[in-house]
Amino acid sequence: MNLARKIFLAVLCILAPLVVTYLAQRVSWRMDWTSEGLYSLSQPSRDILEQIEEPIEFTLYYTPDVEDIPASIRNFAQRVKTMLYEYTKAAPNRITVDIANPAPDTLIEEEAVGAGLSGQRMANGEVLYLGLVAKGNGGERVIPFLLPAREPALEYDLSRLILDLIHPEKPKIGILTSLNLWGKEANLVQGVRAEPPSILIQELQRLFEVVPLGRRGDIPEDLDMIALIHPRGVSDQMAFALDQYFLAGGPLLIAVDPSSAEVRRTHPNRNQLNGLGGPTESDIPQLLSGWGIQYNSRRVVGDFELATNVRLSAEEPELPHPLWLTFRDPESETPATTGLNEILLIEAGSFTVENPNLRVTPILETTAQSGEMMASSVPITGVENLPQQISPDGRSEFIAALLQGVFPTAFPDGEPSENKEDDWIRQLEEEEDPSLKQSTGESNLVIVTDTDLFTDRFGTETVRYLSQQTTRRSNDNLALAVNLFELLAGGNELVELRGKGTVARPFLRVEDLAAQARVAYEKQLSQLEEELISVRNDIRGLESESTDEEKEISPEAEAEIQQRLQDFREKEVQLRREQREIRKELREEIRRLDRTLVLINLLVVPGLIALLALQYFLRRRPGK
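-> structure tokens emitted (624 positions)
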């Protein structure tokens, strides 16, 4: 190889990375090979972008120069930027994105604060901003701080922001319920004190225009969704109207319950309720069975894996309550559960879907350690006796799910009338039936088989601070309830959006090995813990015997007691030392697995390059 060629190759090697970097910054072409399409827009989001008539401007306020930003937040901020640019690519003339750095004591920081963004103060005193402002003809929408916990719902949150700007008017929803969610007006004559609406209704009124529906009334034509919460005594005429509304494309939320703890608590004759046919159960069989959904309003579901520990009195120990189901960090393909930590369901039911034409997206499910029992037995069965009433069948059941598809009408014979003779005359005269016989498009239905989820009692708690009394949320029940309303009221595009997971990809093999190691070491630790408990009991017994003033102890017996105490204390120290060693070995084994994986990752690519170079060298040797 001559000198000129060597110089040319050297210059090429220097310029090639610069050219590649330059092109990468200016050519917006890439491929999304992630399994969940983390860096690509879904078709429902693209459909929302098609509805934009006036430009929408996004401004992301982010302070990247803050020291000690957690890697999770830094990576999430990059994911937000990438996702926003995907929107600009999909709608270049309708979406613009600006990245602003609200550094301390700058006009941009004043803008961020004025827009309603909330900075998070770090341990070093610096303020971290990661908020979003969207502006359009529909006004302004703000996300004060983008939470990494909602990363799976990032596309959903951004698309909903756009949809709110396109349609700034509040969605109108109707609620039919037999629960006391609306509160009470004061009546001085009857001695009735005023009660405010439930926290759920107050939250919904902030987001939507909410109207109550009667069990026998008409349905307004302009409703964006309808919710039936503990429906009881719904007339056939009202059920038919709901069926036709649903088949025409109106989304429905149906919450039924085989045993409502809230009704049992508030019913005036609650001591006489047994759950059988009483107001503690709810159903709307005219619709559910007609749509191919099997729900038994006489049976509650229990789950030993999801059981909640309850304490019946201060003197008694905690007991697992298999009918009180706690879902921790619930996950589903819908955004309804994203970012939620704990859901508590009380004496819920379950349902199955027998219509094969429907797509079912689970929201909450039981585990294989679940079974059913009669709802009528719940009030008269103590918590300690519930395990004898529930036999796990090894199957998981739906407690809440999203159903989508083409539904058949629940009234194939047409609109029912209050007078049965009218039905007979209509059939005799063969009048044309104008009612819908199936969905005109895809219908969206959410079913929840627990209505206590929507009440204040099991989602909030009252706390007193000094002379003030306030209410705070005790779990994420109400957040889930509001999310379900938002999911359905936002239109078909939002319902179709699915959670996409997170950028972080754990090493599942390492986690499995670490879990296996923990199981092996936990057995040893539990044995040591049992020995420690036994030793502590022996020590307490000897100490009480030694300090018993009413019992005369000879010097020889006292010396023997002290010697045994010393032996037990030494044994306790030895057992604690063994525990520390076992935990140390466990941590070391997990670190060893991590180091092995890192070493493999570091050596695989250089090793392959070295093998290719060696092969090339051998082929280039003279005489070969």
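DSSP finds 15 helices and 22 strands in the chain.
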